[in-house]
Amino acid sequence: MSQHYAITMPQLSDTMTEGVVVTWEKQPGDKVERGDIVATVETDKAIMDVEVFKAGYLAGPLADVGATIAVGAALGYITDTAGDVAIAAGEVVEEQAQTEMIPHHAGTPIVMPQLSDTMTEGVVVTWEKQPGDIIKRGDIVATVETDKAIMDVEVFQEGFLSGPIADVGSVVEVGHPMAFIVDDAVKANDTGVTISADHKVKNTHKVAPPSADKPTHIPTPKAAPAHISAAGNVPPVARPQGRQASPYARKVAAQLGVNLTGLAGTGPSGVIVAADVARARPSMQEVAHSLPQVDVPGQGRAMTSMEKAVSHAMTASLTLPTFNVTVNINTAALTAAAKTKKVSVTVAIAKACSVAMAKFPRMNWAYQPVDKLVERSNHDFGVAVMSNDGGLVVPILHSIEKKPLEALQSDWTGLVERARVRKLAPAEYSNPTFTISNMGMLGVSHFTAIPTPGISAILAIAANGPQGTPFTITGDHRVLNGADVALYLATLKQTIEAPDAWMAGGATVAAEAVAGQAATVSAPVSPIPEGNWDFPVVIVGGGPGGEDCARDLADHGIKVMMVNNEPFPGGECLWRGCIPSKAWRAAADVIRNRAHDAEMGVDGTNAPALNWAQVEKHRRWVQSSRGDMALKADKGMKIDVREGYGEFADTHTLKITPVEGEPYTVSFGAAVIATGAPAFVPPIPGARENLATGGVVTSDTIWNLATPPKKLGIVGGGVIGVEMAQIFRDFGTEVLMLERNERILAEVEEEIAKTLIASLEKEITVVTGADIKEASGKPGAMTLRYANKEGVESVFDCDVILMATGKRPDTGKLNLDKVGVELDGAAIKVNARCQTSAPHIYAVGDVIGGYMLAHTAATQGRVAADNLLGHGSEYDQDKDCGVTFSRPQAGFVGLSVAQAKAKGIDAVEAKMPMSIDAKAMITGETEGMIKLVADKATGRIIGVHYLADHTDTLIGIGVMMVAGEMTLTQVAKAIFPHPTQTELFGELARRLLNRLRRTAKK
Ligand SMILES: Cc1cc2nc3c(=O)[nH]c(=O)nc-3n(C[C@H](O)[C@H](O)[C@H](O)COP(=O)(O)OP(=O)(O)OC[C@H]3O[C@@H](n4cnc5c(N)ncnc54)[C@H](O)[C@@H]3O)c2cc1C
Fold it and tell me: Residue 720 pLDDT more than 90?
């Protein structure tokens, strides 16, 4: 008779009562050996491997991925019978198969910290404490050598140091134990718990290689990772700090040399699975190792971590197509000025590089695979320093563009001291945006330096010669061309040779000054071309983008004309977008809120009735009042507002076709295009054809509905579709939403979207992966024919169909080719200053793509105006925000963790559910959460994400925190009133600070 054993949820800590299944590493039927990892589970502390100590075959039923299982309860089974993939209910389970999780009960492990993105292992250099020594919070117990520097290992737990301890000189993988801390001196070096061979210091556990005859299967529920095979017995890479990665993913990562930090995870709750690793770009290590190798005779010794890092980075630099440009610069004046200012020449040169770079921002960009450019405005320059042991260390002077010389000198003094002994914190050497190497001090007459992936230019400074000091830039040709570098070096030469212009202060105008204009220039210079124009500036389009731009220019005394092909300004936002939709939402809110009155103790309000005529009257009153106010304000500000259609006749002439009368032209110096983006209807049979009858509507025409439909079909699950779905649901409409993609709300932060979708699906029917075949019928009797992802066809009979399939700029009739304005897809291509490829023409708002939001358009309008007034102003998407007016409301400010990581920021987040907030409990608004995202290196808050009632108000706090670049400490210390939902921000900041403090390494 066959025997079955239960694999039970192991208990990791005294506090652990349950765990969540994250992955299955084996499938039913797979052979299992003693010590195999069969699953990973998430506990209250971390994701852990579940190891079994009984051989046999894995059998189901297995606990579902994502299921919460109590400690001691069965996760799955092991049977001794091959081919027995599931044991039947009622079959006898003999006993529990012994399971174990790593780490086990030797104490709290002190693990090798990950001190930089590239660090995968470290070498133990010293032990500062001995087994049995008392350990206090913040004690430094050891030093380790990483690929960049020698670092202290600090611990944040009290207790006593206990073995087994990794020997000095031994290599320990990141995340793996170096020693343990026990709570009682007598337990130190306690042999009651032995560290088995599987848990030895170098490899805490091993993953059995896949059997030769069977391709490895990655048990992820959704994504199809397909044939990724981690053959061989390579130890898995460490878990990335603060992230979850399946053991198999870590093993594949080790095989492929992929760095897990910053990789997006598609597993449950964002766990990194093997498929994510397979999709990732190769690391420097993989690039280096993938090159053909030439055999070298002799007995090699293993490289140290630092030697390896340099070797990988240098080989990876071969992927950069580089070129060199040299200019000789007389540094005498700079040297003298630096001496007077009491700053080092190195700091003065770094500042000069930054001042010159203000005019040539490309020098600070980087190529990002595949075919992307990272446009950075922060000047964080790496400057090479010789360490005491003769190696090169490259500490980073941060934010050079913002800091005065004195502050930079003070930063530099500390950095050099730490660099010389290789004791730099990771933020002090990671992710420079430009690098300077000054070998001139070693007397070399000329040299070139090698940029590595992540920067596009490196400056090599040689020794002073008869013609001056050679400054050679090696540039990445994918980002820079020869002219960029030549012009930059010419500006740098002027900056260095005339240092008084910028060293005396006013570095921001200095770049302008040295870039060809008079050295004394201090007033901003407007780029509006001189000429006898009818209008110095014309603006095409009177929505939020055009109107804000026109107002700012008029406010500064510029004669502006704004042409809009509608009788009143306000654009889509006022007439077809934000305002009317929120008027509907307000009525829907009143209906929805009544449903909870009884819970609060108020009876008799549960049968609200919709008065559609009054809803519409109120909406129209808001719109017409605001339209009237806007027009009066514009005219009052002396903006020449014209009704008509604008198109370019030539580079300085706009043709206007009014509603009545003949077309006419006006001449202009500069122009701003703010024409928006209409609703886009894809070529689904019947969709475009039925627009005319009103059987199919878009966000442009839904406002003509005579009554709310009884049944509404919505095609498209973006923000507009979701807002409309819930509004009409609250008005009593039955709604079916069809979405072509795998998930709706694709643009919303993942966890926020997931939670909102779960709520939404309780109210309306959502079909994702839908193939929409046809829209047919007549208004009041429409039919939507579609197939679901399994290919099964259905029809939905409804009164009307809303195509909420996005918006797309339509510039076909503007004659952009006549004026040299280029497109990027359907959108107008602009730089961060909102300037198009024609230098005197700017474009703002929906017509340039990106976030299609009213405040984004208005902000860009003000950026364009500012630039036309001669101030350097940029739109920073990383500080933008948005609200989805769903219930609860979703909102974002700044970056999500995934977005931050994609930009190379080591970001962390904390979240709080609304259900624990006192005010939310009082008002019964407990759905959702708030998340705070911070840059680990600086503690700056870079993102806030919401799913909460009143997000439209609470978001203001997030906006101020992100826009003001506030730190966690500042928010943690701020006093928020009780009981209000704002208290959560202080809580979140304190929680995140504490977490960082606990895990911080020096
Ligand atoms: C249903 C819906 C709800 C929305 N809700 C929100 C929200 O809650 N919050 C938010 O921030 N955003 C929201 N939006 C988006 C918001 O409406 C737009 O992002 C915003 O209006 C864009 O401003 P804009 O100035 O770029 O263009 P628009 O507002 O589209 O203005 C462009 C103007 O230019 C005119 N025009 C076009 N071509 C010409 C031409 N050749 N000559 C003269 N005039 C021309 C147009 O008629 C229009 O008046 C919503 C949109 C929709 C559809």
Answer: yes
Q: What is the pLDDT of residues 462-505, one digit of tens each?
A: 988 888 899 999 999 999 999 889 999 999 999 999 898 888 75
pTM of the model: 0.57
CB 265 within 8 A of CB 203: no
**Which candidate, 789, 857, 220, 260, places its Cα nearest to that of 569?**
857
Q: Is any atom of ligand 1 closer than 6 Å to the C-beta of 566?
A: yes
User: CA 436, 441, 445, 451: dihedral to nearest 10 degrees?
Assistant: -20
Residues 443, 427: Cα–Cα separation, whole Å: 31
Contact 450, 458 (CB under 8 A): yes
**H helix intervals, 576-685:** 578-594, 612-636
| 840 given a catalytic annotation | no
Identity at 84, one-letter amino acid code: D
HEC letters along 28-72:
CCCEECCCCEEEEEECCCCEEEEEECCCEEEEECCCCCCCEEECC
Helices H / strands E in the chain, number of each:
23, 50
Rg, the chain, Cα only: 32
Contacts 24+ apart (CB under 8 A), 402-407: 404/505, 404/507, 405/341, 405/343, 405/347, 405/348, 405/351, 405/503, 406/341, 406/343
Q: 881 CB less than 6 Å from ligand 1? A: no
Centre of ligand 1 from the C-alpha of residue 616, in Å: 21
Cα atoms in the 13 Å half-sphere on the side-chain side of 567: 6
**What pLDDT score was predicted for residue 153?**
83
Q: Ligand 1: does its nearest atom lie under 6 Å from the Cβ of 718?
A: no
Which residues have a Cβ under 8 Å from the Cβ of 250 and sit 6 or more positions away? 236, 237, 238, 239, 260
* Kind of pairing between the strands at 18-24 and 37-42: antiparallel
Q: Dihedral, CA atoms, 871, 877, 879, 885, nearest 10 degrees?
A: 130
CA of 957 from ligand 1 middle (Å) equals 26
User: In this structure, which long-range contacts are made by residues 600-608, counting pairs with CB atoms below 8 Å and at least 24 apart in sequence?
Assistant: 600/924
Which of 574, 578, 848 is the pocket-test mutation for ligand 1 (most atoms within 8 Å of CB)?
578
Calculate mean pLDDT across residues 217-231: 31
As a 3-state breakdown, the chain gives helix, strand, coil percent values, each rounded to 5, of 30, 25, 45
* CB-ligand 1 contact for 645 (6 Å cutoff): yes
The Cα-based distances of 523 to 163, 870, 871 in angstroms read: 68, 9, 9
Q: What backbone phi and psi angles, to 5 degrees, belong to 938?
A: -110, -15
Q: Are strands 4-8 and 74-79 parallel, antiparallel or unpaired?
A: antiparallel
How far apart CA 711 and CA 801 sit, in angstroms, is 9
DSSP 742: S
The ligand 1 atom at the shortest distance from the C-alpha of residue 541 is 34
Q: Residues 803-857: pLDDT tens digits?
A: 999 999 999 999 999 999 999 999 999 999 999 999 999 999 999 999 999 999 9
Alpha helices in 193-237 (DSSP H): none
Q: List the single range of 160-174, 429-443, 864-878 with lowest mean pLDDT.
A: 160-174
Span between the terminal Cα atoms of the chain, in Å: 59
The phi, psi pair for 376, rounded to 5°, reads -105, 140
Catalytic option among 105, 477, 596, 855? 477
Complete DSSP assignment for 74-128: EEEEEESSTT--BPPTTPPEEEEEPEEESS-TTSEEEEPP--STT--EEEEEEES
Give the residue, 325 or 991, on which the prediction is more confident: 325
Q: How far is CA 552 from CA 361, 545, 549, 757, 976, in A?
A: 26, 11, 5, 40, 35
Of 35-39, 89-93, 688-692, 814-818, minimum mean pLDDT range: 89-93
Residue 581 Cβ < 6 Å to ligand 1: yes
